[in-house]
Specification:
It is globular, with a radius of gyration of 12 Å. It contains 1 helix and 2 strands; from the N terminus they run αββ. It has about 110 residues and is largely without helices or strands. It has a single domain, classed as E3 ubiquitin-protein ligase SopA (Pectate Lyase C-like). It has a two-stranded parallel ribbon.
Length: about 110
C-alpha cells in the first residue's frame, strides 16, 4: 500500500475537483481536518488514526476502507458508502450520516 503525505492529498484533490481517487492508499494518522473529499474514491484506503473532523465526505466511496481509531467528529458523511469498512474504535460524534450505507445512523 502506497503511503502519501497530507500535502500529496491536497495536490491530488486540486487536480480532481469532481472527486479524487485515493483508493488503496495509506493515509493513516494524517490530520485531514475540514478536507473536502466529496465524491472521493477511498475504497480500501487506510485511514486508521486519521483525523477527519469537519471533513466533507458526501457521496464518498469508503467501501472496505480502514477507519479504525479515526476521529470523525462533525464530519459530513451524507450519502457516503462505508460498506465493509473497519470502524473499530472510530470516534463518531455529531457526524451527519443521513443515507449513509454501512453505518448505523445515530
Amino acid at each position: 500500500m502506497q503511503r502519501i503525505t497530507r500535502e500529496e492529498v491536497f495536490q491530488r484533490i486540486a487536480q480532481a475537483p469532481g472527486g479524487v481517487n485515493l483508493s488503496g492508499l495509506d493515509l493513516s494518522g494524517l490530520h485531514l481536518i475540514g478536507v473536502d473529499f466529496r465524491k472521493a474514491d477511498l475504497r480500501g484506503a487506510n485511514l486508521s488514526g486519521a483525523d477527519l473532523s469537519l471533513a466533507h465526505l458526501q457521496e464518498a466511496d469508503l467501501r472496505g476502507a480502514n477507519l479504525s481509531g479515526a476521529r470523525v467528529i462533525f464530519t459530513k458523511l451524507l450519502n457516503a458508502n462505508l460498506e465493509g469498512a473497519d470502524l473499530t474504535g472510530v470516534e463518531l460524534e455529531k457526524a451527519e450520516t443521513n443515507n449513509t450505507q454501512g453505518i448505523c445512523n445515530r
